Amino acid sequence: MAMAAWLRDGPDGAQIRSRHLAAHLDFVEAHLDTILVAGPLLDGPEGEMTGSLYVLDVADRNEALTFLERDPYHAAGLWEATDIRPFRGVAGRWVGGRNW
What we know:
alpha+beta; 31% helix; 3 helices; single chain
């Protein structure tokens, strides 16, 4: 099952991201088999990073949460809010058109 995780940065997000980026990217590269798509969420005209989005190939919400808790960004306290929900990709280029 796919689970989508929307993670909102705390007030010191930019500083935490810059300090822990290399470790975070190493983590992402080591887990590409679990990650369907991931990247930063952007806000404002300058594209300021304000959060993260993961879509994960995991069994359930608990497995998604366990995965996210191993991310160095989590350990550094980057995310102040986490929303994890089941996700079904049914249309778009990333799913090859439509899936119905």
